[in-house]
Amino acid sequence: MKKEFADKAKESLKSSQILFDNGLYDDSASRAYYAAFRAAIAALAHFGITSDDNDHKWLQANFTRELIHRKKVFDAKFRSYLPELIKIRLNADYSINRVSKKQAKHQLERANEFVEAVEKEINR
User: Fold this and answer.
1) Structural domains of the chain sorted by starting position, each given as residue range(s) with its CATH number in brackets
2) What percentage of the chain exceeds 70 in pLDDT?
3) How many degrees, rounded to 5, is the angle at CA 12 between CA 44 and CA 1?
4) Helix/strand/coil (H, E, C) string of the chain?
5) Residue 53 — pLDDT band, cuts 50, 70, 90?
6) What pLDDT is recorded for position 58?
7) Rg of the Cα atoms in the chain
8) What is the rounded end-to-end Cα distance, in angstroms, of the chain?
9) Whole-structure pTM over 0.85, yes or no?
């Protein structure tokens, strides 16, 4: 499970970059969130923590509680990444307001940092 979701995370990150490079900032921001989301699933699975439905709130809560606070696997700065990334994703997917190039770039950078941190941990 962790390998499959780690691969999906990298694929979403690549899609986000392609979309960004082509000026499709809403879709880039959305894919960036899903890259981090899928990486978080892989990280939790790496430590034997799984869910049948991978609910967004469950994922955020368990990633923070288990992998940042309890096990101290990831730096505390990552506790805000998923909530911030989903906020922009929700705007991108459901609002009439567009995601700016600056927002999309920030979203992509955060997702990239998150995915890299997870990959580093699960490949130890």
Assistant:
1) 2-122 (1.20.120.330)
2) 100
3) 35
4) CHHHHHHHHHHHHHHHHHHHHCCCHHHHHHHHHHHHHHHHHHHHHHCCCCCCCCCHHHHHHHHHHHHHHHCCCCCHHHHHHHHHHHHHHHHHHHCCCCCCHHHHHHHHHHHHHHHHHHHHHHCC
5) confident
6) 96
7) 14
8) 17
9) yes
**Per-residue pLDDT averaged across 56-76, rounded?**
97
Other Cβ atoms less than 10 A from the Cβ of 17: the count is 17
Residue written as token pair 């978080």: 40
The closest of 98, 109, 121, 95 to 40, measured between CA atoms, is 121
Q: Are 6 and 119 in contact (CB under 8 A)?
A: yes
